Amino acid sequence: MSRGGISGVTIARLFGITIRVHATWLIIFFLLTWSLASDILPMSSLVNGGPYWDAFDDSARVVKYARAHSQEDRMDFLQAAGQLGYPVWPGWQYWFFGALGSLGLFVCVLAHEISHSLVARRAGIPVEGITLFLFGGVSQLKDEATSPGDEFRMAAAGPAMSVLLGVVFGALYGVLGTAQPPQLRSLLFYLALINLMLAAFNLLPGFPLDGGRLLRAILWKHYNNMARATSVAAWWGQAIGTGFIAWGLLEFWLGFMAGSVSLGPIWLVVIGWFLRHAAKASYQQLAVRDTFAGLTVRDVIQPEVVTVAPDLALDRFVDEYLYRHKYRSFPVVEADRLVGMISVRDVQSVPRAEWPARTVRQAMHQVREENLVHPSDDLASVFRKMAEEDKGHLPVVEDGRLSGIVTRHDIMTLIQLRTDLGGRWRPGTA
After folding, report:
1. Which end of the chain is more exposed for a tag (fewer CB within 10 A), N or C?
2. Which domain holds residue 65?
């Protein structure tokens, strides 16, 4: 679970939550399908869909036999297994069930993230959506938990769902037994094992993993200080990430010395780097949020705004406003009320020859309600909105009348001053 803002393509909407898939998910789908089809499922087929570790000795025998005949017959693993009398599936089935297993993991990770999101929504925290990407899933929450109890329940929901799924798939594997086809047995065993591994990994006590959030909740209650608890949990997150990197480098070196290099150690390094980066970024995000505490739009509003009348000709607007003031967009005001915005892009959409005959009203665009802000709005939320929609400024409206504008530059300047000077100073206070 994370409060990240990873974008993606919308594929569904479940329980009122938008589900997105990031392009990097295709990478893990391909790698996992390839791993299942070329390694895990062939080993499982040697023991009729049983646990992979039961096939270690058999697999070593098959590899030895294949190597002994590879120079003459170019024999691969499955051919060697068949000649030795082991059960072998048709080649396409390894890829089919490999892809099915990858999709099954996709559904399980989605269930894990939905559990987080539903508990968060029950705690009153709005959920923007869920995005599945290279390293799993991200529950995009609009705010942090307001109490250690809410944080603990939100963090525990995901691993609890993964354990439940692991137990269910394991029970199906055990109950159905050898009565089911070996392909189905292999798939059920894989989904049982991968869900339990997913729960175990997420319970590592490093922020922002679920285990790190559980640790933060416990420390938050103990210290009665969320920032201090986050600092400790984030330190453990970076330490665990460093451990994964060291583990991966050691595995790579040992494999290199033995003449057998695989993707496993590289993957450990990548996961470790991601954990370190995510832990550091999550703590910095909280620090920024703390810097915003108590600030509203009123603290950074620019009340003196250059506005444009709707009946002004476009050619005059270009000469008297765009070139003179050197802004790229202006509020359009009529009788003190905001009726729209006119930008360089709006002017570009009108042929130059028509500028003298066309007015600002005819070229301007309407301002969507979600892009209007009010003086009392929380500044952190407004800044996040501007970042997400790549807006340099937004109009500030009160009772339908334009009060001013708020710019991203002014917000960043205020936050930098607040950080440099320390404390919780607000404009207009001593």
Report:
1. C
2. 9-203
